[in-house]
Structures are given as structure tokens and as C-alpha cells.
Write a structure and sequence with these properties.
InterPro entries: AAA+_ATPase, ABC_osmolyte_uptake_ATP-bind, ABC_transporter-like_ATP-bd, ABC_transporter-like_CS, CBS_dom, CBS_dom_sf, Gly-betaine_transp_ATP-bd, P-loop_NTPase
Number of helices: 19
Strand content: 15-25%
GO molecular function: ATP binding; ATP hydrolysis activity
Structural class: alpha/beta
Number of domains: 2
Keywords: Amino-acid transport, ATP-binding, CBS domain, Nucleotide-binding, Transport
Oligomer: single chain
Radius of gyration: 28 Å
Bound molecules: adenosine-5'-triphosphate
Family: Belongs to the ABC transporter superfamily.
Pfam families: ABC_tran, CBS
Length: 474
């Protein structure tokens, strides 16, 4: 059964802007959602793609379409009915265990393999069915490839290796060396231009591979297990650098990996492949919180949720809040009704102005204050919606208050009580009953609050306007 925090997340306006984590910083592992302009031509558009190896591949496809299972057809069905689009500027990860069809899929994308059936368009141009010369032309202009084992020329210098793609494109020596030198600087290889690959560590060699792909200045980079041969620390460094470079250069990247954590770290969206089929396609959060089937659920159970889920993913709708124009009585009544000791105070457009606590507000009501000004505290802990929950733990233990999730414009999007944070980490429900938790719990008894509200009623004066309060919450 889906944990309640997941259901809540899906109801909320979880993502404040379309490209959610454009400022993912090195060390943070926020997966991002791509900026998706529906009118934009996809960088890659793959429809009903099949690749069957064997003697009569078309017959294999026909049998698969009729419902014959993969193990019953003659030949090997490496890719079965794959349909997806990759948006420009997106990091699209294809993830799956060995033999699931990832490499075959990527090889059909760059034209190294002809699909048995289906279509592939690169920025709207079909590449399926093209003759060799046209296909090579599209590939040269549009697509570069980075391989797991670097594929560097051992007797060429780092600079010549980095310039190789440009050489193939027919760019003159001076220009290609100049461009390659710039890109080498970008990937942190300043000063290594004249070295041979053998003088470089594995991580540095892969930087050369990356530089070569970047120097070619194609729109799309296909990366096949590009970091799999690297030591874990270097690998992490490369992942972070790839995200940085992608952000700077806006390349479209299709990244193949069998490593789920790498997929979750890099992918704006992830296609999980199993036995030739795409078993699920979605953001890291979607796959983690809403796995399509038991296979995927098992697959993701060891993922470090704290480094994938963000404040926006786990926050509760902020229930305990009042508008700035509400007075102490409205605030106290809200706290009484929700059994909590604190409410958020928001101004126009739901901008968070601060919090008030029950004891302070009770005093204001007894004193007959008409505004919340004297009780307003502005030191409530605030977090950005894109912060991963691993980075929320410290803030959460330092305070008894829920963390207020506030966007760049200062708007209150949600609240994260500690219980919600812990429940999200453990992937368990945060409530055992019907009532949602609103933290922190009340510190004054209901009777005292009700009595105070009753005693403070002034039949002759206009009651504080709930309507005015609601208007400012809208
Ligand atoms: N040229 C080929 N001829 C016949 N079968 C092939 C060929 N290439 C791949 N296959 C088969 O297609 C299936 C998918 O292989 P593929 O290499 O695409 O998977 P993968 O997910 O990339 O695996 P790995 O991570 O081990 O490379 C496998 O069963 C494989 O044996």
C-alpha cells in the first residue's frame, strides 16, 4: 500500500517551477525534472522501437506483437516496443541490469544498429531508413558518444584525442586544436594537452573522452556506462562534473548505467529496462515513491532515499496558517481546531511572514490586541523545496517547529514536521490513525483556549474577519 506521505505528495503542487533543480550543487544528489516545453521538438523521439537479433528478426517482432513471450521467439529480442522522447537539455538515463537491452538501445540511437522496426527522430529528422552517408552526416552534426573504456588513441596526445571528433568533421588543425584546448580546460585537464593517454589516470582519461565528445559540439551526448570503470570517488566527481557541464552547456545527454544510485543522481528522467522492455519511465522520485511493479519496487528498496527525495517531495500541505490580517482570536481558534501550538502567518500571495505560538497568542487575546504583531516570530526554520532530505535533518533536529518549505519568492509551499521527515526516510506511514499529524502539539488545554475565546467575545464590536484572513490566504 502506498505510504500516506506519498499520496499527499502527489496531490500537492510539488514542483514550484518546471526545471526544478537547475541549481543542484555538487554534493547534492537532487534529481531534476527537465524544463519541458511541449511545443519544442524533442531531441530524440523514439517510437515503437524493436531490435531483434537472429535470422528472421521481422518474424520475431511479429510474434512479439501477437503476444509471444521473449523466450519463445527465435533469435534474441534485445529491445521490445520502446517509445519515449528525450527533451533538449535533459539528462535521460537508461538503467537496467546486464542484458536488459541498454547498449542495443543506445546503438540504435546513434545509428550503429538498424532497428528491426520503429522510428527514431533526432530533432525531428528521422534517422531510421537513412542511407549510410546521410546517417553519418546526422550523427556527425548531432550525436557524440562517450564509451566506458575511453576509446582513446594511445599514440596521440591528449589534445589530438580531444580534437578527434572535429578532425572527422573536417575542421582545420588550428581551429580544432584551439577548440579542443578550451574544452580540455573545461574538464579540468589544463596542462595535460601534450601528454599521452598512458600518462593519465583512469579518471583523467575519461575526462579526455568527455572532452572529445564536447569538442565536437554536437547537441546530443550518448554515454554508455561512461563512468563504470572508474573508482567510486572519481566516479562521483565525474558525475558531479557532468551535471555542472550539462547545466553550463545545455547538452542533451542519454546516459546508460546499470547503477541505480548513479541513475538517480544524474537522471532528469530514468527509463528502467527489463528483458528488453522499458518497465518504467519517470523521475527518480516517481520511480522511488511509485514503482510500477514489484520488480522495480525491489530494485529501488536499497536506494538512499535521503539523497533523492527533496523537501518538495515529502512536505505536507501547510494546514496551520492564518493570513496577516487575521487577529489573535482567529489564530487561537485555528490552533485549537488543529490541536497545535503554532500557526504560520502569511501575507499577500502566501508569503511567509513568520509564526505565532499559542501561549503568546493567548496573551494577546486576553489583552484584547487586534493584531498578531506583538507575537509574530520571524525566526521559523525555512528550507528551499529543492533541498534533499539528507540536508534537512540537521535543521530538523535543531528545532521543535516543522520546517517551512519556502520558494525563491518567499511563498510558503508546505511544512515538514519531524515525524514526516522520519517517515519519508523510512518509507513508512507517518500516522497510525485517520487524523493527519499537525505539529507541534498544543501546549494549552482546549478548555482554556475555548474559555479564553468565550471570555474575550465583545458582542458590540465586529468580530475579526475570517473572510479577510481567507482572502489573504487565497
Ligand atoms: N550483436 C548481437 N547479436 C546477438 N545478440 C545480441 C547482440 N548484441 C546484444 N545481444 C543480446 O541482446 C540482449 C541485450 O543486450 P545488451 O548488450 O543490449 O544489454 P545491456 O543491458 O547493455 O547489457 P550489458 O550491460 O551487459 O552490456 C542480450 O541478451 C544480448 O546477449
Amino acid at each position: 500500500m502506498a505510504p500516506p506521505w506519498r499520496i499527499r505528495r502527489l496531490r500537492l503542487p510539488t514542483r514550484p517551477s518546471v526545471r526544478v533543480r537547475p541549481h543542484r550543487s555538487p554534493g547534492s544528489s537532487c534529481p531534476r525534472t527537465p524544463e519541458h516545453n511541449v511545443t519544442e521538438i524533442p531531441a530524440l523521439d523514439v517510437q515503437e522501437l524493436y531490435k531483434v537479433f537472429g535470422r528472421r528478426p521481422s518474424e520475431g517482432v511479429a510474434a512479439l506483437k501477437k503476444g509471444t513471450t521473449r523466450d519463445k521467439i527465435s533469435g534474441t529480442a534485445a529491445v521490445i516496443d520502446a517509445s519515449f522522447t528525450v527533451n533538449p537539455g535533459e539528462i535521460f538515463v537508461v538503467m537496467g541490469l546486464s542484458g536488459s537491452g541498454k547498449s542495443t538501445l543506445i546503438r540504435t540511437l546513434n545509428g550503429l544498429l538498424e532497428p528491426t522496426e520503429g522510428t527514431i527522430k533526432v530533432f525531428g529528422e528521422p534517422i531510421t531508413g537513412l542511407d549510410g552517408k546521410k546517417l553519418r552526416d546526422v550523427r556527425r552534426r548531432r550525436i557524440s558518444m562517450v564509451f566506458q573504456h575511453f576509446a582513446l588513441f594511445p599514440h596521440r596526445t591528449v589534445l589530438e584525442n580531444a580534437a578527434y571528433g572535429l578532425e572527422v568533421q573536417g575542421v582545420g588543425a588550428t581551429e580544432r586544436h584551439e577548440r579542443a584546448r578550451k574544452v580540455l580546460g573545461r574538464v579540468g585537464l589544463d596542462g595535460w594537452a601534450d601528454s599521452l593517454p598512458s600518462e593519465l589516470s583512469g579518471g583523467m582519461q575519461q575526462r579526455v573522452g568527455l572532452a572529445r565528445a564536447l569538442a565536437a559540439d554536437t547537441d546530443i551526448l550518448l554515454m554508455d556506462e561512461a563512468f563504470s570503470a572508474l573508482d567510486p570517488l572519481i566516479r562521483r566527481e565525474m558525475q558531479e562534473q557532468l551535471v555542472e557541464l550539462q547545466r553550463e552547456l545545455g547538452k542533451t545527454i542519454v546516459f546508460i548505467t546499470h547503477d541505480l544510485n548513479e541513475a538517480m543522481f544524474l537522471g532528469d528522467r530514468i527509463a528502467v529496462m527489463r528483458d528488453g522492455r522499458i518497465a518504467q519511465l519517470g523521475t527518480a522520485e516517481e520511480i522511488l515513491t511509485d514503482p510500477a511493479d514489484d520488480y522495480i519496487a525491489q530494485f529501488v528498496q536499497d536506494v538512499d532515499r535521503a539523497r533523492v527525495l527533496t523537501a518538495a517531495n515529502v512536505m505536507d500541505a501547510p494546514r496551520a496558517l492564518v493570513g496577516r490580517s487575521a487577529g489573535p482570536r482567529v489564530a487561537l481558534r485555528t490552533m485549537r481546531d488543529l490541536h497545535t501550538s503554532m500557526v504560520y502567518v502569511v501575507g499577500d500571495g502566501r508569503r511567509l511572514e513568520g509564526v505565532v505560538h499559542d501561549r503568546d497568542v493567548l496573551r494577546l487575546v486576553r489583552r484584547g490586541d487586534r493584531t498578531l504583531d506583538a507575537a509574530l516570530r520571524t525566526d521559523a526554520p525555512r528550507v528551499h523545496p529543492d533541498v534533499v532530505i539528507a540536508d534537512l535533518l540537521e535543521s530538523s533536529v535543531e528545532t521543535d517547529l516543522p520546517l517551512a518549505v519556502v520558494d525563491d519568492a518567499g511563498r510558503l509551499l508546505g511544512a515538514i514536521p519531524r515525524v514526516t521527515l522520519l517517515a519519508a526516510l523510512g518509507n513508512v506511514p507517518n500516522t497510525t490513525g485517520e487524523l493527519p499529524v499537525v505539529e507541534p502539539p498544543a501546549t494549552i488545554s482546549m478548555e482554556i483556549i475555548t474559555q479564553t475565546l468565550h471570555d474575550s467575545m465583545e458582542p458590540t464590536s465586529a468580530p475579526e474577519s475570517d473572510a479577510a484572513s481567507e482572502r489573504s490566504l487565497a
